[in-house]
TrEMBL record:
Any Pfam family matching the protein: COX1
Name the record gives this protein: Cytochrome c oxidase subunit I
Main location group: membrane
Source organism of this protein record: Haloarcula onubensis
Domain of life: Archaea
Limits of the Cytochrome oxidase subunit I profile domain: 60-553
Length: 597
């Protein structure tokens, strides 16, 4: 182990111990925290519990309010989304020409690695935690999360995790390229990730480990909150679908992220202490793939189950009907959670594993499509003969369903061994995966932002900009990732910085054409997200104020959930306490008065 790595590891250990020691000495952990279960405080606790929140930056650095922490998660996730999106645009610009347009091979590999890790670990999981932190207590009638301090700690572990993951980009110029960004790809396959002599890889692994600890702490908190903090009128039978999916997702995190953490520690030991967990003479390079994908495929459902819950919650509101087959949606959620741990080796069909094992994994991989199809039919049936209102949240829900169908069907092909052996490690896999991650996770996230925007801000967004964001996003998503599916059928390998194959795989002009289409789609997506950020910021600051606690006119169909009841009480309290009367009338999808249309 190099002396520099020893010093770095030692400093990290000292820093973490210092943070833990500091947290244990902070004032009474119940400060600013309501008593669980709605009890009343007495004596000294009553004074502490009734204090006002501090103002300014101190509030955000010390808060344990679940709503504030939800907003912090949201800001963090949007920043990570922007960083990962810029990396994606750089990747697509590089592939405009067969020889590479702007990046060298090392720079391309660095950006490719960081893009995947950023989107999955720094955007995907935290942005879900943003919605869950803000709304789970409101939806289930709880005062706060079960462990407010742990909730805050889980968030504040994420910024240093991001800095460690991105550290190579900042340190490379300072250290004369002695520390560079990791170039292992996001899957970190051995032996490449062991033999790459670059301290930036160690920093990235430590950052991943830190993000995993944060996710695990959050998952425990969500499980305990949903199980023990529900209001007296909230039973398992009438628990909302979003809370069901968060509980299922948290269970997946609890069983998968610790395994990833253990694998990362073994990888760090192989890199720095000469152990042989993943060496040929030890556990073997394939051991990493088994450990990683046992986490990696549940991770796909960790990312997509909560957006499924968001769509299952929001889509009925704009269909004028209750969610069709609610119990079956819940059962399919639990089935996906269980089956997701039995499909990991379909990522390894081409490794030469025993054909009998391959067949069993193929069967389970195809079987997991059944509960996913159940959800899809339930969403479509909910809309069937419904009174559809095509507000921006509803448009993103419909976009989610269409993208999820394409992503799911292409996944069934990859689950079939003969097809996978042909398409493995081609752009077909990239297209399939991004239809799920961007086409499903991204669209579910946008639907949730627009639907709950009045609750977050007390204002309404601009309707025209919201719908422009949707149409640019749906066009860009399908143009980019459908072109990638075509590239996969042409045999274009993934992760290549150039594609000068001279016709060995497919006619070069044909490959170039689909790369151009994918790049054009990426720029359309970029424009859509710029509109989203502008709409978010401008409407938050200057959007028309919402006066009514039912801005979507949900009470008409008997679908007003607890968070809107809470929001209505908040508005009434603001007026009672002398808040300013809003000058605008109650608005719905960005500027039109509420109506039955």
């Amino acid at each position: 182990m190099a002396a520099g790595d020893l010093v770095l590891t030692g400093l990290m250990a000292v820093l973490l111990v210092g943070v833990i020691a500091l947290l244990t000495r902070i004032e009474n952990w119940r400060s600013y925290t309501p008593l669980a279960g709605g009890g009343t405080a007495t004596g000294e606790d009553a004074v502490v519990l009734n204090r006002e929140k501090p103002a300014g930056l101190i509030r955000w650095l010390t808060t344990v309010d679940h709503k504030d922490i939800g907003l912090l998660y949201g800001l963090y996730g949007i920043i990570a989304f922007a960083v990962g999106g810029i990396m994606a645009v750089l990747i697509r610009v590089q592939l405009i020409t067969p020889g590479g347009a702007i990046l060298g091979a090392n720079a391309y590999n660095s950006i490719l690695t960081s893009h995947g890790i950023t989107m999955l670990f720094l955007f995907g999981t935290p942005i879900i935690a943003a919605f869950a932190n803000y709304f789970i207590p409101l939806l289930i009638g709880a005062d706060d999360m079960a462990f407010p301090r742990i909730n805050a700690i889980a968030f504040w572990l994420l910024p240093p995790a991001a800095l460690l993951i991105w550290a190579g980009f900042f340190l490379a110029p300072v250290t004369q390229n002695m520390i560079e960004p990791a170039q292992t790809a996001w899957t970190m396959y051995t032996p490449l990730s062991v033999e790459q002599a670059n301290p930036g890889v160690d920093l990235m692994l430590l950052g991943l480990h830190l993000s995993g600890v944060a996710a695990t702490m959050g998952a425990i908190n969500f499980i305990v909150t949903v199980f023990t903090e529900r209001g007296e009128d909230v039973t398992w039978a009438n628990l909302d679908i979003f809370s069901w999916t968060i509980a299922a997702q948290s269970g997946l995190i609890l069983f998968s992220f610790p395994l990833l953490g253990s694998a990362l520690v073994m990888l760090l030991l192989d890199r720095n202490l000469g152990t042989t967990f993943f060496a040929v003479e030890g556990g073997g390079p394939l051991l990493w793939q088994h450990l990683f994908w046992f986490f990696g495929h549940p991770e796909v459902y960790i990312l997509v189950l909560p957006p499924m819950g968001l769509v299952s919650l929001i889509l009925p509101k704009f269909s004028g009907r209750k969610l069709f087959g609610f119990k079956f949606v819940v059962y399919s959620t639990l089935a996906i959670g269980v089956l997701s741990f039995g499909v990991w080796a379909h990522h390894m069909f081409s490794t030469g594993m025993d054909p009998r094992l391959r067949a069993s994994f193929m069967a389970v991989s195809i079987a997991i499509s059944i509960p996913s199809a159940v959800k899809t039919f339930n969403w479509i049936t909910t809309m069937w003969n419904g009174r559809l209102r095509l507000a921006t949240p509803m448009l993103f829900c419909i976009g989610f369903v269409s993208n999820f169908i394409i992503g799911g069907v292409t996944g069934v092909f990859l689950a079939a061994i003969p097809v996978d052996l042909v398409l493995h490690d081609t752009y077909y896999v990239v297209g399939h995966f991004h239809y799920i991650v961007m086409g499903a996770l991204g669209f579910g996230f946008f639907a949730g932002v627009y639907y709950w925007f009045p609750v977050f801000t007390g204002r309404m967004y601009q309707r025209t900009l919201g719908k422009a964001h949707f149409w640019l996003s749906i066009l860009g998503t399908n143009l980019t990732f459908f072109a990638m599916l075509a590239l996969g059928y042409l045999g274009m390998p993934r992760r290549y910085a150039t594609y000068q194959f001279d016709g060995a795989i497919a006619p070069l002009a044909q490959v170039s054409t689909f790369h151009l289409l994918a790049t054009a789609g990426a720029f359309i997506l970029l424009v859509g997200q710029l509109i989203f950020v502008w709409n978010l910021l401008q409407s938050w600051l200057e959007g028309p104020k919402v006066e009514d606690g039912d801005p979507w006119n949900l009470e008409r169909d008997g679908m007003l959930d607890k968070e809107w009841t809470w929001f209505d009480r908040k508005l009434e309290t603001a007026v009672t306490d002398g808040g300013e009367d809003a000058e605008q009338s109650t608005l719905t999808d960005g500027g039109e008065p509420k109506s039955d249309d």
